[in-house]
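BUG: 3D viewer hangs when loading the predicted structure for this chain

Environment: internal workstation, default settings.
Expected: structure renders.
Actual: progress bar stalls at 90%.

Input used:
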Amino acid sequence: MRTLILISALFLGFSPVGLAQLPEWAQSYGSTLPFPRATHLTGFGMARLTSQDGSALDQAKAQAASDLIKKIQVTVSSDMVSISKEVDGKFSSSLTSVVQSVSTLQLEGIEYLTAKDNTTFYALAFVKRNELAEAYTERLRASFARLQAMLTQAAEQEKLNSQEAVRQYLAALPRFAELLEWVALVRALSAKTLASEDIGVPMRSSAIEFLAFREQELHAKVNALLQKSITSLDEAATSVAQRFQLQGMAIGAIQVLDLNYQDSDFSSAFGAFFARKLEAQLAALPKRHQESQVVRGNYWERSGSIELLLLAQTTTGEKIGSVSLTFPKSLIPKDLEIKPRNFEQALKDQKVIADGALVDGDIGVEVWTNKGRNLERVVFQEGDKVELYFRVNQPAFLRLTYLLSTGQRVLLEEKFYIGLDKVNQVVKYPAELVCSAPFGVERLIVTAFSSEPPKPNVKLEKISGEEYEVLVESLSQTLTKTRGLKKSASSQDLKLGETTLTITTMPRLRQ
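Structure tokens produced before the viewer hung:
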């Protein structure tokens, strides 16, 4: 289902010359709110006035909405890790698909407070947690009832025409991704874990467990009805493309992102290689239209086989395809690494970063590269140039900490300043990096400070012949010290923000 952002703007404090006293939420860049955080979720944005005031106001609103949605995405991702542990990993593939699903999240019912002074527009996006959670719960019940009807019809058709039944079952699969996303949103908004009975199923289980089980059950049924063995990676890519086509996926401008390994947020040589094969197969399909589409996916090693789970969405968030496929691991050439290098260390770093993360930081900060951002699977091959871009919703000093695949923690930048004149604008980092060995999973941690940050504890060290400032403390100690500044009595006026970027580096793939 396509969703739209609904806007209700309340204009505050406008005088004929635009110099009225700013409300406190604008003066504090969204840190001080006019309503409790327990009942409202917010995002802040600002934009410099231009000759077209309407354009600056729209920019401020868009940035505020983006900041709000990002907070929900981070919360949902964290929740899925927790739920996966609760259900002992039984539905890890389905829960991973929820994270993929919310990558294009758009919310209904966003409201805005706005203000301006003589230089800047300010916007505070907000939603009422309980009201939005109730709206999604109601939508869940109605949508699940429609899904049940689709599955009943497909089961009846199975007795008459198995091929038509497969088509109908496949058409139902994207609905599960939509429903699981809504269940996760309700939990993120209200901290309530929906039970099966909340969506109309009289069973003693959580709604997310029930839906994940039914989704896996339906994928298994489709695979059994198709009964086709896969004998090459080309056949695997062809089979995935055909299933997307049977779901009614109309191919237009399409991007297949490098597949991530298991439940992680990083890829491998195989993940990148298979994504290219699939993208070529999808591009060859005859039916075309103009809307851009993105396919995200993960893969799991299951003893002697590989299990793929892929989700296709439009850029507006509509779920248009969901495919699960299993094939023998032996089909993957020996020179294609299935598991990312330094995988175990990368998982440990991922956990350290996630523990105590600033989900609702005072400063909204974004980072991406010339090859995309986290949700777009950032993979660089040997020799590629790496360019970094930032955007903040208020003036800030950025500290850049880079975790190499070797485990070393390099201070790339101590205090890169983005001033008021660059707020809400894309700012390119002046230094340019080049992808080189050693390869593996690497991470960039961007910490934003409202005032000049304290000097970190570093030592000079040579890495691959180049001299770098390397952090002396462990990753955990570094993050604890930085995040702890927000709680320090002597730093009450200090505002912080944080984001991370995961980068997979690898040798150049064969053509």
